[in-house]
Amino acid sequence: MDAPVLKNKRRKKSRSRTQVSDSEPETSSPAVPSSPKKPQQAQDSSIDSMTEAEVTAAFTQFYARQTTQEFAEDLDRVRRAEDFREVEGVEMLITALRQGASLFSIDEMRRVVRAEREKERARAGG
Asked: Basic residues compositional bias: what residue ranges (predicted)?
């Protein structure tokens, strides 16, 4: 008699909703009527004129907000763990978030900050 072979159950990983693509879409058809280019160019130039420190600060804030939303349940489980020390644990989580943000190049950060500003502007105008 052979013993039954048990298969490991694997959880399917969910895709992140915060992925940023390095490439532009080949064809673009705006869902909204196009607006004059001057405000867009002014917005782009204001982001392009930001210092690296300003872009990094804006990106780090965005990255921390997005990651805490994406991993909210996991972070709650970590905080509720018996061996979690309130002060040291929170400092460790904040440091980990900052280290994650530092993995991006300044160009990638600038691109994300620009896209986030465009979304904010669209929400305010629409």
From this structure: 7-16
What are the start-end ranges of the H helices in 16-105?
A: 37-48, 52-70, 72-80, 86-101
Q: Which amino acid is at 35?
A: S
In the DSSP assignment, the letter for residue 28 is -
Radius of gyration of the chain (CA): 21
Find out whether 93 and 40 touch, Cβ atoms under 8 Å.
no
Confidence at 6, pLDDT banded by 50, 70, 90: low
- pTM above 0.70? no
CA distance 112 to 120: 12
Report d(CA 55, CA 39) in Å as an integer: 20
Give Cα 62 distance to the centre of its chain. 6
